[in-house]
Amino acid sequence: MSDLPDALATLLGPAGLLTDPADIAPALSDWRGLYRGAALAVLRPASTQQVADCVRICAEAGIAIVPQGGNTSMVGGATPEGNGRSVVLSLARMNRIRDIDAVDMTMTAEAGVVVKAAQDAAAEANCLFPLSFGGEGTAMIGGILSTNAGGNTTVRYGNARELMLGLEVVLPDGQVWNGLRRLRKDNTGYALRHLFVGAEGTLGIITAATLRLFARPRASEVLFCSVADEDAALAVFRRFREADETAIRAFEYMSGLGVDFAVKHIPGVALPLAQRADHYILVDLASTRADADLQGLAEQVLGAAMEAGEVLDAVIGGSEARRAALWRIREEHPEAQRKEGASVKNDVSVPVSKVPELIRRASAACGRLIPGIRPVPFGHMGDGNIHMNLEQPEGMDPAAFLARSHDIMETVNAVVRELDGSFSAEHGIGRLKTDMMESWRGGAELDAMRRIKAALDPTGIMNPGKVLP
Ligand code: MLT
Ligand code: ZN
């Protein structure tokens, strides 16, 4: 506390500066409980100028800054290290939507706007902000851009990067860069805005963003199907793409075990089919045309897929409540896995064509590593991003299982590498995966990243210990 410059208290006042250990505790650990750090304080600036002033004061005092939004990181990217010479800078009070334009189809939102609030504001303007994932009720705009979040609708609308037109960023020396342009075409030198997306707060602090909006779907339909195997799941995806690529809003894969866990642990979740299977898919269809016959499209594709033996059984959503119930089976996967015991997450991607091989080979390899290990692959099959998660063997000591995390991740990653994939698809690097950067991105790529970091943040005060090894 004595290390904290008095200027911060003067700048932020009591509402903007937390130093009581009980008050700052929630900001020091991640929701998965993987990391617990230390910090001098939590700064809660309420404006871009206050963020800039905080950065300048901390830079002068040599205090590191850990930007934090909703603190939903899967990889420990938003919590401080253990040494305590740092502050957490929370963007939560910067939660204004500055502008929505239904002609330009843009929204300018501050970093602390919760994703769900951005979705709701877009809907009120009769538009769509399409980014959607399990943590959307807590995660914030600054965080989803800093991690280039993906989620369920990437197959149709792209990742956070593709939804971003402009940024406002406080640089590590306290300068404010106002790049909140709302242009679809803007070729004026280096596309700086893209540098900060996915940088996980290591190059500066995103304080606001101009985001793309889309026409709101007027028809939608959700299907939940059991399928013969992983190849069948992919075959059904191709059938939908051929029938009407624009109608696919999400295409998700789930294993039998993952669905079993959801049914077992989550009150209100039930299997909507008569028989259990080893593989399932959830298909979300949407159209901006109110008269689009999505049920007809679904029936046509399912008919052919059943005849080919790919789809075993299927249910088509119907009412809004029923569709939400089908989505819950998928969305509750992380929580159900948590309740089942210890699990190791592997957020990986491969070319879409190789998803079936990834699931099969990684599951088998992990089974050889730890007999009885329970693979629970699920996720965004339509964009090649599978959460190749592994649940502890029944009855094994959770701590003993987690002690093998590194071996498990390496085992999965060896398969991912052979399939030309990536060791981090949508969760980012954070602290969890920094030690993998050298072997995956070493050489010219990592060298260029380090030089960019050194140029923008020469003293290394921005989110130290994250991304770069
Ligand atoms: C999800 O898609 O539900 C999360 O990104 C996944 C996870 O728990 O690994
Ligand atoms: Zn995901």
TrEMBL record:
Q: Where is the FAD-binding PCMH-type domain?
A: 35-216
A biological process (GO) of this protein is:
respiratory electron transport chain
> Which UniProt keywords are given for this protein, alphabetically ordered?
FAD, Flavoprotein
Membrane-crossing ranges are none
List the Gene Ontology MF annotations in alphabetical order. Answer: catalytic activity; FAD binding
The Swiss-Prot or TrEMBL record lists the needed cofactor(s) as: FAD
Q: Which family does it belong to?
A: Belongs to the FAD-binding oxidoreductase/transferase type 4 family.
Protein name per Swiss-Prot or TrEMBL: FAD/FMN-containing dehydrogenase
Origin organism of this chain? Neoroseomonas alkaliterrae
